[in-house]
Amino acid sequence: MEGLELAHLDLNLLVIFDLLMTERSVTLAARRLGRAQSAVSYSLARLRETFEDPLFVRTKAGLAPTPRAEALHREVREVLSRLREVVQGQVRFDPARARRTFTVAMTDYVELVLLPVLAQRLAQVAPGVDLEVTASGDDIERQLEEGAVDLAVGVMFYERPGVYTRKLFGESFVCLARAGHPALTERETLSPETFAGLLHVLVAPRGRPGSFVDSALERMGLSRRVALRVQHYLAAPRVVAETDMVLTSPTRLARAHAAGLAVRAFPPPVELPGFFVRAAWHERRQGDSGVSWLRGLLIELGEELDRAS
């Protein structure tokens, strides 16, 4: 790329490069762009020529980026994000006419509770808006900072300069056990001692040790055995339905699972604080009218969920 002038660089190539890094497939990138696969292949050839590097190597799993591509990607995303802010920040976002894809990171719990009503509302008021939902992992704050996601919705966010959060809705806890669990045969609830003596499933999305339950038991001089620790809620209620383990779960999630599984809910035998689900975004998105609109919609839906509970 020696001697390359900015005037000779087609910025659309950077958009295609970003998509190829995300999709790791010429076919999928072409589909996202609404272009022919041959056109994206031609753009990839131009990118290789421009940066004097293969950028991607074909493997059985798809396109694997070279070290040069990995190094370029962070800078390219930064440039594209700033360009989008300049262009979109000058235009009022009209959801009824807009055609845009938002990338939103969510935990599996949030997907189950919020995503159905969000998708329904988008279909009604913003039919041209698409969502790309990604997992909310340990590096979500970095993803927000780098512009990899527009918004994140979850429970815990680490403090980081430039990351803002807003409460969406509150949630409480309930316990789940299988129907016919021997400890609950003739009881509506359990004593703290009996509860602590059972085998427990713990869902720890961000890998943090302990939980509200462990803290509450510790204050009473009790402890429990966590027989199964998982990162997602997807399988936990099914494990409970097939074993004598118990699960302390967000109430809305337990309500959704109880309808299709042979499980029963009972109140926690220990006092547990509720929690709030929050939206998080980076200050770089403050001037983006589209992200501001989506954030407002999430706040509106969160208020509706609170009123319905």
UniProtKB/TrEMBL annotation:
The keyword Membrane does not apply. This is LysR family transcriptional regulator. InterPro entries: LysR-type_TF (IPR050389), LysR_HTH_N (IPR000847), LysR_subst-bd (IPR005119), WH-like_DNA-bd_sf (IPR036388), WH_DNA-bd_sf (IPR036390), YidZ_PBP2 (IPR037402). Belongs to the LysR transcriptional regulatory family. The keyword Transcription applies. GO terms for molecular function: DNA binding; DNA-binding transcription factor activity. Keywords: DNA-binding, Transcription, Transcription regulation. Residues 9-66 form the HTH lysR-type domain. It holds the Pfam family LysR_substrate. SUPFAM superfamilies: Periplasmic binding protein-like II, Winged helix' DNA-binding domain.
